[in-house]
Amino acid sequence: MDKEYLIKSAEKLNQVSEKTANEYQNKRDILISKINEIMLSRPDLESLIGIENINMMKDNHANHVRFISSIIKNFEPEILVETVLWVFRAYRSHGFSTNYWASQLNSWIEILKTHLSDNAYNEILPFYEWMQVNIPLFAKLSDDELDKNLSQHKT
Q1: Which helix (H) or strand (E) holds 116?
Q2: What is the domain class of 3-154 according to CATH?
Q3: Average pLDDT per block of 10 residues along the chain, 155 residues long
Q4: Any residues with CB less than 8 A from the CB of 100 and at least 6 apart, and which?
Q5: How does 34-68 read in b/e, with b if 16+ C-beta sit within 10 Å?
Q6: Residue ranges covered by each domain of the chain
Q7: What is the distance between the alpha carbons of residues 90 and 113, in angstroms, rounded to a whole number?
Q8: Most Cβ neighbours (<10 Å): which of 20, 73, 76, 149?
Q9: What CA–CA distance (Å, rounded) separates 139 from 100?
Q10: Where are the alpha helices (DSSP H) in the chain?
């Protein structure tokens, strides 16, 4: 499995309705506040994000909502895949573990269920489930890319 597999699987996701995209966008502040609250309360936070990365984590949460808001308004599977791979490489190079994404996505799903209408939740949930089930592949592909870049710099 590779990036092409991720793109093909992302192509199976459905564009959400304009109403759902607007609801997600309109609730962005509460969503960001809740994810920060949940993640900051975790006793294992340092093992998930590394040392002194709280502000980076908070930035990631705000960027996540902006990105998802954009992707559900104008769905492009390739952009979804490329961006998630970039995020994995960037944040993992700063000490974030793959377990961070599993924890974060589980929390996002809980928050969305609580704060979105049933219809919006049901339309957006497949995007989060898709990211969740593909964490191992995102981790592998980002590791491969990081390893490739490191070996290029050694020569």
Answers
A1: none
A2: mainly alpha
A3: 92 97 98 98 96 96 97 96 93 91 97 98 98 94 64 54
A4: 48, 49, 57, 91
A5: bbbebbeeeeebeebbbeebeebbeebbeebbebb
A6: 3-154
A7: 29
A8: 20
A9: 11
A10: 3-10, 18-26, 28-40, 45-49, 54-73, 77-92, 98-115, 118-133, 135-154
Q: Which two tokens stand for residue 31?
A: 């969503």
- What letter represents residue 117's amino acid? S
Q: Which of 130, 49, 32 is nearest to 91 (CA)?
A: 49
Q: Single out the residue of 79, 78, 56 nearest to residue 67, CA to CA.
A: 79
2-6 long-range contacts, Cβ below 8 Å, gap at least 24?
2/141, 3/81, 3/85, 3/141, 5/137, 6/81, 6/134, 6/137, 6/138, 6/141
Which amino acid appears at position 36 of this protein?
N
Instruction: Let me know: does 101 contact 64? Beta carbons within 8 Å.
Output: no
